Amino acid sequence: MALRGLGRRISIGKRCFSSASEVEKRPRDGKQINLFSAINQALHIALETDSRAYVFGEDVGFGGVFRCTTGLADRFGRNRVFNTPLCEQGIAGFAIGLAAMGNRAIAEIQFADYIYPAFDQIVNEAAKFRYRSGNQFNCGGLTIRSPYGAVGHGGHYHSQSPEAFFCHVPGLKWLYRLAVEEVPERDYMLPLSQAEVIRQGSDITLVGWGAQLSVLERACDEAAKDGISCELIDLRTLIPWDKETVEASVRKTGRLLVSHEAPVTGGFGAEISASIAERCFLRHGLQLEAPVARICGLDTPFPLVYEPFYMPTKNKVLDAIKATVNY
Amino acid sequence: MAVSRLASSSSSLSKLLLRPLPAPPFSRSFSAIASDDDGTVLTIETSVPFTGHKIDPPSRSVDTTRNELLSFFHDMSVMRRMEIAADSLYKAKLIRGFCHLYDGQEAVAIGMEAAITKRDSIITAYRDHCTFLGRGGTLVEVFSELMGRRSGCSKGKGGSMHFYKKEAGFYGGHGIVGAQIPLGCGLAFAQKYSKDETVTFALYGDGAANQGQLFEALNMSALWDLPVILVCENNHYGMGTAEWRASKSPAYYKRGDYVPGLKVDGMDVLAVKQACKFAKEHALKNGPIILEMDTYRYHGHSMSDPGSTYRTRDEISGVRQERDPIERVRKLILTYEISSASELKDIEKGIRKEVDEAIRQAKESPMPDPSELFTNVYVKGFGVEAFGADRKEVKAVLP
Questions:
Q1: What pTM did the predictor assign?
Q2: Each residue of A298-323: pLDDT tens digit?
Q3: % helix, strand, coil for chain A, step of 5
Q4: Max Cα distance, chain B (Å)
Q5: Complex-level ipTM
Q6: What CATH class does B3-368 carry?
Q7: Are A298 and B386 in contact (CB < 8 Å)?
């Protein structure tokens, strides 16, 4: 639970690759490490390979509240890895300016719940910079990292998933990584906007991202006991998202279920549902056999003691899988 | 270079933090012990004089009575005991979530209450258990809310960071630091509008002092002469970051620039009382004023923070020895022979029992009903439905 709960990251980036290396489909050589270590390694590589890369945010100097930045200040110095005062709007604006001068600015927002003071900077400044200057300026080197999602006791302000607000803004990219994965130790690049089919199946397609995938995986395992074969897709990037992969999968299975922790109304599942309904309604004789199911958080503020009721749990997903398959 | 700067700054920080309690200038020879108060006014000097920014500070001689000093001792001890009990409950996993303890800072809450009425408003961030108690909250309400039970002040829906008490003018209890300050200025506007001679105290910490919204709200308050008092509870650490690393100017009472400010020893309850009284009078006549309370928290930022990775244990125990607010009042009581040491010990024993009893009662309270998950979002009914895969309307029925 601890690993699952804490092992989530969202990144908003204009360009999130490390500079060297070729693009690979899915690197096979690697060992299993958790997300914090992976991020830590990635930051080490980023700062090593680019002398104009900087990491900053609240309390990152000693390693950060999730230990993603351990060792960086010691290795690269406090001119490149430094703490900021408590001011998210300031951090975001400052990062945008730094990136506009051609640097790789990696800003950390301590919890995704705190990102709202920076909303104006991200949406109005970062997302539109290149567009409105006719490509004279850009803040492509900007990355904002933030942990999101429920931890079991986070309450209202240490549990939120704000992706829906930002996915509505053209000009940003929004990505996730799994909590525990096999990661190579060297520098490598993954293409953006490429969803990954984690599990092949034939009866229903499940789409999720971030830590919700572990819930979906367990639901898949349970559904398999009832003879339902589930295909599981990790979307990885929300904008731009890989419509082709999901569409191809739904054409095969005819059923779709989307799951995320954010509240269901206006959540990103709505975008996926609408797009897939558009594309897969009736085509080449194949059609959607059932309405798209969304198993998401409820339409309330993220609660404190009610968290187990609020969350899109394995059983809720399982129920929906069965209802959709038997529609 | 960073290390040497750390060493020199932290030693000057330590010097700042460890100003000792001066001996009282004289001692009166009152006869008895116990709390009969003949209403005699005792005039006691604060530990250090006030420092003003664009204002003449009040006198450092504070009037108080024997009863008031005893009540200070009692109330601060209740707060201290409550926070320590909350620490144990958290470690026993009866309190979950985030828990930010106030022990060490009790003088700010108590001194403020002594200077104002329940019709004045207080709003603060998440370190609010003691502020709530000061506003008239009960121990049972505190522990119930911490454990998420129905008898909590927010019906168990808020938790540690969201205590409120409407009838006593306590507006909470906020998670995002700095966000409570514009709210406080709004409260003050309403008070000015209703002409009821009340003020609002908007509390924040040294970390939040760097939030932009503070300065926005300050400008508006000064422009419109709102009766708001901004109180910076400067415990010198914004979570793990020392004030000298977060702020170019750690003189938070001066940050208002055109708004006057006062620096107060936040560990001296009499100084806090004097400053708040002074500030209230000023705010009603002239508009906003900033108070910087120089205080200290013994625990870490929250229960997840040991509190010793960014400061030394010597510093913590040094402050505890030299500047503890409860010990200061104890010394005053003994010096002025208001009570005896053994009586004070009895009071503390009684408090321990009171706190234990409150915990026992709170444990008996049930968790809120699952239907409360959906209440207080919209008008009844709206937003409660959850659709299933078959598209029929399904009202979510919780187990």
A1: 0.83
A2: 888 888 888 888 899 999 999 999 99
A3: 35, 20, 45
A4: 85
A5: 0.77
A6: alpha beta
A7: yes
